[in-house]
TrEMBL record:
It is found in: Cell inner membrane. Belongs to the TrkH potassium transport family. The lineage of its organism: Bacteria, Pseudomonadati, Spirochaetota, Spirochaetia, Spirochaetales. The keyword Plastid does not apply. Pfam families: TrkH. InterPro entries: Cat_transpt (IPR003445), TrkH (IPR004772). The chain crosses the membrane at residues 12-30, 42-60, 72-98, 138-163, 184-202, 238-256, 276-293, 335-363, 393-417, 423-443, 455-478. The keyword tRNA-binding does not apply. This is TrkH family potassium uptake protein. It is a multi-pass membrane protein.
C-alpha cells in the first residue's frame, strides 16, 4: 500500500525547505548585482510556489499518517528527482547553461556529490550560480532527506523509513533511539567539520567565498569548484593538505565521530573498516609517490607525496578534486587510481562507491569459500573488525556488487552510443555510478561532459541517482510487485 496523499505532502514540504535554502545564493546574486542570476532564482521561486501550493491543496489533510516501506523508497527517490528539477531552473533561466538537460545534469551531479560538469569554462559564470552549484554538493553530502527528518515530528511522521532508504552502506547506524536525534547529531557533526575547514582555509589565504565553496564540496566528498583548474588553482601545499585531511574525514563513517565524542575512542580505533580505509589510502599514496618520484614526474619525493596523497584521497573518497592532470602520470599510478573507482568511502560517510566494508567482506567471503573447499564440514564466519556478518547480509553484499558492476557495464554501452571511446565510456559510467566526478580518457581532470548528447545526459543523471541511493532504493520502483496492493 502507498499513502499517496502523505507522500505528495512530504514532497511539497521538502521542496519548500530547499526553496528556503536557495535564499542564500539569491542574496549573493543581489549582493553581487548579478541581474541574470537573480532573475533565475526568482523564476525558480515561482515554480516552487506553484508546485508546493498545488500539492498541499490537492492532498488536504491525509486520512492517515502511517508510512510503509514503499512510501520510504518512493518519497526518497522522488525527492532527489524533484529537488533537482526545481534547483536546475536558476542555472538555465539565468542563461548560465545552454539548455535544461545540461542544467539538470549539473544539479543532479551536485546533489549526488558526483560533481561531473558540462562546463568547459567555470569562472566566467555568475558567482551566485556557482555558489548554488557548490551548495547542492553540501546539501547532498549528508542527505537531503536526513536534513529534513529533523522537521518531520511536527508533521506527525516517523522518519526512520526515509532515512533508511537514503542512508548508504550495508548496515545502518542508529546513534540514538529516536531517528530525529540521530539526524541532528549527524548534521551537527557535519556542520562542525565544515566550520573548522572553512576557518583553516581562511588562514591559508583563501577569501570567504572560495573557502566556503571549497568546504561545501570537500565535506560532501563531492568536488565542484569555482575555479577552472579545481584546487590546483590555488597552488598551495597548505591548502592541499587541509583539503586532503577533510576529504579523508568526509569519507569515514560519521557514526565514529559521535562515538569518539562520546568517549568511546577505543572502539573507534578498533573499527575494522576505518583501518582498511586509511590503510588503502596510505599504501596507494606511498606506491604512487614512489613511482612519480622514480619516473622523474616530480623533482622531489615530498612533492610526489603531496600530489599522490591528494589524488588518492580524492578518488578513494569519491570527491573528484584535482591538483594535477594525472592522465600524464605513469601508467602504474593511473592503474592504482583506476582501482580506487571500485572501492569508495566508508559506510555511513559522505562518500559514494561500493564502500570499503563491502570490498573487505567480499575478500573475506572468498577466503571463507577457499577454506570451505578444504574443510567441507567447517563453518567459517566472515568478520570485519568486531562485526560478524550474517548470512543474509553477505548475500545482500554479493548481490549489490554484482548489480553494481552490471549497471556500470550497461551504462558504458549506452554512453558509447555518443561516440566516446571505450576507455572514456567505461570510465564515465563508473564515475557516475560511484559519484566520483573525474575519470580517464576524455573525462579526465581537464575534461568535461559537454560533448554528451542531451538524451545521454538524462541517462547519466539516472546513473548518478542510482549510485547515490545505492541501486535498490531506485530499482525497487521498477518492480511490478512494488505497485501491487
Amino acid at each position: 500500500m502507498i499513502n499517496w496523499r502523505l507522500d505528495l505532502r512530504l514532497l511539497a514540504f521538502i521542496e519548500l525547505f530547499i526553496g528556503i535554502l536557495m535564499l542564500i545564493p539569491t542574496t549573493l546574486a543581489y549582493r553581487y548585482q548579478e541581474a541574470d542570476a537573480l532573475r533565475g532564482f526568482l523564476i525558480a521561486y515561482l515554480a516552487i510556489a506553484v508546485f508546493c501550493s498545488t500539492s498541499l491543496i490537492l492532498t488536504g489533510k491525509p486520512k492517515t499518517k502511517t508510512m510503509y516501506a514503499r512510501d520510504g523508497y518512493l518519497v526518497v527517490t522522488l525527492t532527489w528527482i524533484i529537488a533537482t528539477a526545481f534547483s536546475a531552473i536558476p542555472l538555465v533561466a539565468s542563461g548560465a547553461y545552454v539548455d535544461y538537460s545540461s542544467a539538470y545534469f549539473e544539479v543532479m551531479s551536485g546533489f549526488t556529490t558526483t560533481s561531473a560538469t558540462v562546463l568547459p569554462e567555470i569562472e566566467s559564470l555568475p558567482k551566485a550560480i556557482l555558489f548554488w552549484r557548490s551548495q547542492t554538493n553540501w546539501l547532498g553530502g549528508m542527505g537531503i532527506v536526513v536534513l529534513f527528518v529533523a522537521l518531520l515530528p511536527a508533521l506527525g511522521v516517523s522518519g526512520s523509513l526515509l532515512v533508511g532508504a537514503e542512508s548508504v552502506g550495508p548496515t545502518k547506524d542508529k546513534l540514538t533511539p529516536k531517528i530525529k536525534n540521530t539526524a541532528l547529531i549527524l548534521w551537527s557533526i557535519y556542520i562542525g567539520f565544515s566550520f573548522i575547514e572553512t576557518l583553516l582555509l581562511l588562514l591559508g589565504g583563501l577569501n570567504l567565498y572560495d573557502a566556503v565553496t571549497v568546504t561545501f564540496s570537500t565535506m560532501a566528498a563531492a568536488g565542484f569548484c569555482v575555479k577552472n583548474s579545481s584546487i590546483g588553482t590555488f597552488g598551495s601545499a597548505y591548502v592541499d593538505i587541509v583539503v586532503t585531511l577533510f576529504m579523508l574525514v568526509s569519507g569515514a563513517n560519521f557514526a565514529l565521530y559521535y562515538k569518539a565524542l562520546s568517549g568511546k575512542l577505543s572502539s573507534v580505533l578498533k573499527d575494522g573498516e576505518l583501518r582498511v580505509y586509511l590503510g588503502i589510502w596510505a599504501v596507494v599514496s606511498l606506491l604512487a609517490a614512489l613511482k612519480l618520484f622514480t619516473s622523474n614526474t616530480y623533482d622531489t619525493f615530498a612533492q610526489s607525496l603531496r600530489y599522490s596523497t591528494f589524488q588518492t584521497a580524492s578518488i578513494l573518497t569519491t570527491t573528484g578534486f584535482a591538483t594535477a592532470n594525472y592522465i600524464h602520470w605513469p601508467a602504474f599510478t593511473q592503474v592504482l587510481l583506476f582501482l580506487l573507482f571500485f572501492i569508495g568511502g566508508s559506510a555511513g560517510s559522505a562518500g559514494g562507491g561500493v564502500k570499503v566494508i563491502r570490498i573487505v567482506a567480499l575478500f573475506k567471503m572468498g577466503r571463507a569459500q577457499i577454506k570451505h573447499r578444504i574443510h567441507p564440514r567447517g563453518v567459517f564466519q566472515v568478520r570485519v573488525g568486531q562485526t560478524t556478518f550474517r548470512e543474509d547480509l553477505l548475500v545482500s553484499i554479493a548481490t549489490f556488487f554484482g548489480v553494481y558492476i552490471l549497471t556500470g557495464v550497461v551504462g558504458a554501452v549506452v554512453i558509447s552510443l555518443s561516440g566516446a571511446d571505450p576507455l572514456t565510456s567505461f570510465s564515465a559510467s563508473f564515475l557516475f555510478l560511484g559519484n566520483i566526478g573525474i575519470g580517464f580518457g576524455e573525462v579526465g581532470p581537464a575534461g568535461n561532459f559537454a560533448f554528451l548528447p542531451s538524451w545521454i545526459k538524462w541517462f547519466c543523471s539516472f546513473l548518478m541517482l542510482v549510485g547515490r541511493l545505492e541501486l535498490f532504493t531506485v530499482y525497487v520502483l521498477f518492480s511490478k510487485h512494488f505497485w501491487k496492493h
